[in-house]
């Protein structure tokens, strides 16, 4: 390292370094350097002298007046100046004055075939990778998919029964079953789907209690995590008292809310990394099932009777209690009136008997 630095400094201090140009490179003349002095001579001073890079570079790349690079052909320039510019608007485009970087100028590039379905194929691959759920444990995957089957079956059955009811109203007879039978089956499916949805929502909330007990994601997180398991059943079970349409819409919103809560828990590290994708697929299936049920019921809303729900039964019970109280009150009043009438009759009979005894005495 020291010898190399000394060689550079001796080169910079050499008195005669420039000779006549003897080499050209692409028409440009460059000077030929001639080294003088000894590179083994040690400097008399230990201080570092600045390296004269600028002076050496000027000497190295200096050109002579006769260099072809600096030569200007005056006659050619004058002939070009005398020419008139012609207007060619058909040659002007948005990229006619743009210098391309990734291809050569003046060379036509072959047109590449554009796959018009590339975007759709990319979306299909994304959906395929999402629903593959390769990172999900097989046990959780199988049980989860089996858990959404009842929801999907009840929804498909609702759609079919709605179609059969419309078929019976249009043709006078059902396709497989009669209109009355289809309506009765539909009323059986309604509480089953709503009750099963309430159970699933409660289960999804309870998962966070289990993760909290296991200290998944670090130390205990307290009420923030327990609240998810409390809110879920508090929202799910009151839907049993609502009409069918309102109950399904409420449960749909509850499933979506729990999905976002689970996705956020996954981001925070409160749940496994695969849990948010797993929950997305299950929520997608359940959401589609609820939408199908709502569509099927909307097609026959004016063709079937409304099955009394729990709220209707409570109202009917309350009305029957009022009717019983009114009937008992009427019976009590009638009994009291009968007693009073009997008492009046007895008083009249005693008065008549008293008058008869007084007449006999006279």
Could you please describe the fold and organization of this structure?
The protein is an all-alpha fold. It has helices at about 1-10, 55-60, 75-80, 120-130, 140-170, 180-215, 225-235, 245-270, 275-300, 310-360; strands at about 25, 30. The protein has a two-stranded antiparallel ribbon with strand order 1-2. Strand 1 (about 25) and strand 2 form a beta hairpin. Helix 5 packs parallel to helix 9 (about 275-300), helix 6 packs antiparallel against helix 7 (about 225-235) and helix 7 (about 225-235) runs antiparallel to helix 8 (about 245-270). The longest helix is centred in the last third of the chain and has 52 residues, at about 310-360. It is elongated. The protein starts with a helix and ends with a helix.
């Amino acid at each position: 390292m020291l010898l190399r630095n000394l060689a550079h400094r001796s080169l910079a201090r050499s008195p005669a370094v420039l000779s006549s140009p003897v080499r050209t490179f692409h028409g440009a003349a460059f000077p030929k350097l001639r080294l003088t002095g000894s590179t083994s001579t040690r400097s008399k001073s230990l201080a570092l002298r600045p390296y004269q890079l600028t002076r050496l570079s000027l000497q190295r790349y200096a050109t002579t007046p006769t260099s072809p690079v600096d030569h200007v052909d005056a006659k050619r320039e004058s002939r070009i100046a005398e020419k008139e510019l012609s207007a060619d608007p058909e040659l002007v485009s948005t990229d006619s004055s743009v210098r391309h970087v990734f291809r050569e100028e003046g060379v036509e590039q072959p047109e590449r075939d554009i796959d018009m379905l590339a975007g759709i194929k990319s979306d299909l691959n994304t959906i395929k990778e999402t629903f593959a759920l390769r990172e999900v444990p097989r046990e959780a995957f199988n049980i989860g998919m089996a858990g959404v089957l009842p929801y999907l079956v009840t929804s498909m059955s609702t759609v079919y029964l709605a179609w059969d009811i419309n078929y019976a109203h249009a043709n006078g007879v059902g396709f497989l079953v009669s209109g009355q039978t289809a309506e009765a089956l539909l009323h059986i499916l309604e509480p089953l789907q709503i009750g099963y949805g309430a159970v699933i929502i409660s289960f999804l909330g309870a998962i966070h209690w289990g993760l909290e007990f296991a200290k998944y994601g670090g130390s205990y997180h307290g009420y923030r995590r327990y609240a998810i398991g409390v809110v879920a059943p508090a929202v799910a079970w009151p839907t049993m008292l609502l009409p069918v349409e309102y109950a399904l819409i409420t449960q749909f919103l509850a499933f979506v809310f729990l999905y976002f809560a689970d996705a956020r828990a996954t981001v925070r590290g409160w749940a496994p990394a695969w849990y948010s994708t797993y929950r997305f697929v299950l929520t997608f299936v359940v959401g589609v099932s609820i939408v199908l049920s709502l569509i099927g019921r909307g097609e026959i809303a004016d063709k079937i009777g409304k099955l009394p729900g729990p709220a209707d039964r409570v109202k009917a019970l309350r009305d029957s209690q009022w009717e019983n109280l009114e009937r008992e009150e009427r019976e009590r009043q009638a009994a009291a009136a009968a007693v009073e009438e009997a008492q009046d009759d007895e008083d009249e009979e005693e008065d008549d008997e008293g008058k008869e005894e007084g007449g006999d005495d006279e």
